[in-house]
Structure formats: C-alpha cells, structure tokens
Write a structure and sequence with these properties.
The chain contains 17 helices and 15 strands. The protein is an alpha/beta fold. A hairpin with a 5-residue loop joins strand 5 and strand 6. The model has no long low-confidence stretch (mean pLDDT 84).
C-alpha cells in the first residue's frame, strides 16, 4: 500500500506530504483546486514521462516520492532480486526532474531507468484516471480481464514465448527459400567454374614447377653442350684434367716428408681429385639421361597454358590462389546442395513450434471461454447495484489465426436498456456508463491482479444519487482487501471513506504571490461540513448538514 506521498515543486504545488492509511480514502476539493495535479505527480513515480514545463519554480528541481509497504508480495521481492536492487518490506520510489529537464528515477535510493520504475509500480498500484474508461473498448484490456479471471497469465507468457519461436522459425525458413531461389542461377555458374578447376586438377606448386621445367626443356641443347665440354675437360682430350691431377699426386708423394706443409697440400689436392671424379660421373650421368623430349615439352606447354588461362579468368597469379578459389567454390556448392536439406529440417521445426503454439493457444481459449458466463453474470449484478439495472454485457470470443496473444478475437458487447441488441462497447456506452462498468470490472479482477493499492480518479463521472451511493459502497467493499484511494465530487462516495482528504488553494501562499495547492486530512466535524458543502453549496443548510451526518453514519 501507499503509505506516504511527497510532492515538491510540481505545477501549483510548492510542497505537499500526504500520510495515507489502509482502507478507503477519499480526496475531494473544488474544481481547479489541484486534485488531478496530485494524480499527475503520482504518475511520475509510476513511470510516466514528464519534462521541465511542470516545474513550479524553474530554478529548483522537482521531486516526487512515494513510500510503499509491499508486505509479503513475492512478485515485488522477485523483481528486486532479479534487478539486483536492495529492499525489504518498505519501498521508496522517487522521481526527480532538474531545471534542464533531465529526469532521474530511484528505487530505495538506487538509480534505475524508467522501464524498471514502470515495472515495479505496475506491481504495486492500479491507477485509474479520468479517461482510462476508453480502455474498456480496447481488445488488449478485454483480453487481460478474461486472463486475469482465469488466472492464466503464466500460461499466456509461455504461449508468447512459443509463438515468438514459431514466428522466428518461419522467418528462417523463408530466408532459406529466398536463398535457394536467388542462388539457382549463381549456383549453375559456380558449378561450371568448379568443374573446370576440378578437371584441371592442379596440385600445390605445380605451375611454378612446370615453369622451371619448361625453361630447362627449351634450353636442352645448350645444357648438353656445356656438359660435354666439362666432361671433355675432365676426362678426355690430349691432357685430361683428372689425369694431370693424378700425375701431380704421384710426383708430390715423393716429397711428402721433406716439409711439414707438404702432407697437407697433398691431402687437399687428393680431395680435389676425388671431388672432380665425382663431378665427372654426375655430368656423364646427366648428359646420357638428359635430352630433348618433344612430347614432354608439348605437354608442359599445354599444361601451363591451361593454368595461365584459369589464372587470368579468376584474376590470380599463383597455383595456391587458384586452389583457394577451387576450395571456396567447393564450399559454396556444398552449401547450395545442403539448402534443400536445411529447408526440410526447418519445415519440421516450423511444424513443431506451430503445434506447440496451437496447443497452448487452445488451452488459453478454453480458459477464457470458461470465464465468460461468470463474468457476464457478476458484472450484471454489480451494474444493478450502481444504478444500471437494465444494462448487460456480452463477451464475444471468435476464433482467428495465431497471434501474439493467442487465437481469439475478443469483443465486449453492451446493451444499456435490456433491448436484446448488443453492440461493441466502444460505440454505444456513455461516459457515465463506462465509468461504472470499469469500476465493476476492476472490482472483479482486482484480486486476480493482486494490486495492493487501487486509485480511482473521478470514477463517478456521470452518476449521482443512489448510483453514487452504491459506487461508494462498492469502493468500501474493495477496501476490505486492498487500499482504495478515490478522487471524487460525490458526497455519497466521500461519505463511505474511512479517511477524507481535502484539496484546496491558498491564494498568495506561493513565493510569487500566486495561488498554491495544499491538502490536509479532515476530522469528523470538518468532514460533516465539507460533505454538506458538496451537497448544498458554500453555505450548507441544516438539511444539508443533517444529510452529511447521515451519509457519514
């Protein structure tokens, strides 16, 4: 429940503190005194948007603070835990707006964003303002009424997750189908390119090796001539080099012991002789095995020509780059070949998620349908109490395709005069009828929604007399299980409250001499006087005073 409301520097309020209690509290005052301004200020800590235009004194910040007793509400506790916010039974919600228009929100002095403030306030307070009766004609509100009575908000949440998964599955499937459609022509061209590279079957580094081989093949004659001259120099001719070296070694052996340097020189010369012998054999071997091969030359040339053509086509220069393109085309073709399989798999996923969503939607529809007759009867009984004995509502539930909230189209129909002719509520009900109907419905769903505080701003629009008295009695009954706060112009409603606050203007009380708004609780005698004035005007007659006492009794 709301224990205390503090307002500073808001509109025509300099500073106001309201101490509230459980039960039924009425707030009255003359038109223009500032009752709705109180609701506007309260709306700030409930997460409504505002700007610096509502500041009374432009150089000071605006502050609105509400102190709530959340009791043992597990929803509040779970929210605080999930948001990593500290808090026990008492919660302090505060909103500040500085002169530059910057807004800040706090829960128990911890800064929070507007969304968090809206979430926690929605667990604490149901605020019905003067024009909220328009909600009655909206399908979202009507659907929530049925779901609240059925106690199936958790089931609806489960369905919404399932529905979203189904929608996402369909989107993925459509993406696959679009990909297949747009890839068909491209895939054919990729397949042609892949087959061309696959047929070429180049291995790593092959073109570079072929280039070297081609260079050698085109210079075979020159190489053989060089090999022949070397071989002749080493082993043939009038004075072969190896024969001369062998002769020198034999001559040098005779002087080996004559000087310490001779053995080393002889060994070095012998090593050279051995190395030249080995070179001679290698050159002979290469010379005999190496010769012009026209077929090999033709094959290498053709192979290289194919490689150059493919490189030019794909705008690369090396075998490695060509092989990389081949690998990439292989992956693309594999993905294309897999798309049909992916489509089949995704179709199964879509069918599975749709089946689950349909099952949950069916359970939700049955839950809603079970509440219809009871809701219609209970609303009719309450409407009789608030002065509308001939009025009835009819809940129309129509099956439709799966949507974010189920598979139902919901419409509240209304017959004000027991004519048997029901029409959409939003088209035929008057403002006063909507106000009383809203009160009846909120009285029915209040327990299901577990609001600890319900606030009604001028719920009495368009009613008077016995209807107003019955509205007062209904609000009094509601206050047995929750805190009820009502801004009213009706003495019959104010008389049923356990606490009565009076809103008034004090001319010249402000710093600038302008009228400012204040609020104070009334004692018993003040209540009699105030309610009598509501009945009979500024100077109430003895009859009005007696009537006021009767209402209070």
């Amino acid at each position: 429940m709301l224990k205390r409301l503090f307002i500073q520097n808001y509109a025509i309020i300099d500073e106001v503190t309201i101490e509230l209690s459980s039960g039924f509290s009425a707030i009255t005052g003359e038109t223009g005194a500032g009752k709705s301004i109180l609701m506007g200020a309260l709306g700030l800590i409930l997460g409504e948007r505002a700007d610096s235009t509502v500041l009374s004194q432009k150089e000071k910040k605006l502050v609105v603070e509400g102190v709530f007793d959340s009791g043992a509400d597990q929803r509040v506790h779970q929210f605080l835990l999930a948001q990593e916010l500290e808090g026990e039974q008492e919660l302090v919600l505060r909103r500040e707006i500085n002169p530059q228009g910057k807004s800040r929100a706090f829960i128990n002095d911890t800064p929070v964003n507007l969304g968090q403030l809206q979430q926690i306030s929605s667990l604490l307070v149901d605020l019905h303002q003067q024009f909220d009766t328009l909600q009655l004609g909206q399908e979202d509100f009507q659907r929530e009424v049925l779901d609240a009575l059925a106690g199936q908000f958790s089931l609806v949440g489960e369905y919404q997750l399932s529905y979203e998964k189904w929608v996402q599955s369909k989107a993925i499937l459509q993406a696959y189908v679009n990909q297949k459609s747009s890839s068909d022509a491209r895939a054919e061209y990729n397949k042609f390119q892949w087959e061309e590279l696959e047929a070429a079957a180049f291995r790593a580094g092959e073109m570079e090796e072929l280039e070297a081989e081609l260079k050698l093949l085109t210079h075979t004659e020159e190489v053989q001539q060089v090999f022949t001259r070397i071989s002749t120099f080493l082993t043939e001719g009038d004075e072969p080099a190896l024969a001369r070296l062998k002769s020198f070694l034999q001559e040098l052996a005779e002087f080996r012991d004559m000087h310490e340097a001779f053995p080393t020189l002889e060994d070095r010369l012998r090593s050279s002789y051995v190395e030249l012998q080995d070179l001679s054999r290698e050159f002979d071997k290469l010379s005999s095995n190496f010769g012009a091969d026209p077929k090999r030359l033709e094959w290498v040339s053709e192979r290289l020509s194919l490689g150059y053509r493919l490189c030019k086509k794909h705008q690369v220069t090396t075998t490695a780059e060509l092989l990389a393109i081949h690998e990439d085309l292989t992956k693309q073709l594999q993905e294309f070949l897999n798309i049909d399989q992916l489509i089949v798999q995704q179709q199964k996923e879509v069918a599975a998620t749709e089946k689950k969503a349909v099952e949950l939607a069916s359970r939700i529809s049955k839950g809603r349908e079970k509440q219809i007759k009871g809701l219609e009867k209970r609303v009719h009984d309450l409407l009789q109490r608030v002065g509308m004995p001939s009025a009835k509502i009819k809940v129309q539930l129509t099956a439709e395709q799966l949507g974010p909230h189920g598979s139902d189209a919901i419409e509240f129909l209304f017959d004000a005069n027991n004519s048997g002719q029901f029409h959409p509520l939003r088209k035929v009900a008057s403002g006063g009828e909507l106000s009383r109907l809203m009160l009846c419905i909120k009285s029915l769903v209040g327990d299901s929604l577990k609001f600890s505080t319900q606030i009604f701003d001028e719920i009495d629009t368009g009613i008077a007399g016995e209807a107003a008295r019955q509205v007062g009695l209904l609000l009094k009954e509601l206050s047995g299980s929750r805190q009820v706060i009502c801004i009213t112009h009706q003495p019959q409603i104010a008389g049923k409250a356990s606490t009565h606050f009076f809103v008034y203007k004090d001319k010249g009380a402000g710093a600038t001499g302008a009228a400012r708004t204040f609020i104070r609780p009334l004692n018993s005698e003040e209540r009699v006087q105030t309610i009598a004035q509501m009945i009979g005007g500024e100077n109430p007659t003895p009859a009005a005073l007696a009537n006021a006492r009767e209402l209070l009794s």
